[in-house]
Amino acid sequence: SYGVLVCYDTKTGEKYWEKEMNEGFYSSPMIADGKLYIMDMGGVMHIIKTDKAGTQVAAPALGEAGFALPAFADGVIYLRGENSLYCIGN
Known about the structure:
This protein is mostly beta strands. The protein has strands at residues 4-8, 15-20, 30-32, 35-39, 45-49, 56-58, 71-73, 76-80, 85-89.
């Protein structure tokens, strides 16, 4: 949990990308809709395409520390911050 994300091809061992993040991670990553979602301990949700380039789609801040992995159901995402539970979607 020192703030580095790395993506490898599981069949060949080839490293596709490596990203140094500003904050460490406590939560596990989740993959949904072709994107990797992982919240750093500062409460920023990193959304990265699951492509060979690791293209970052967005990095919205929760506004408080975050330590739990996101949950997805019925087109919404549930996020738990240090003090609050959020439901984001239509």
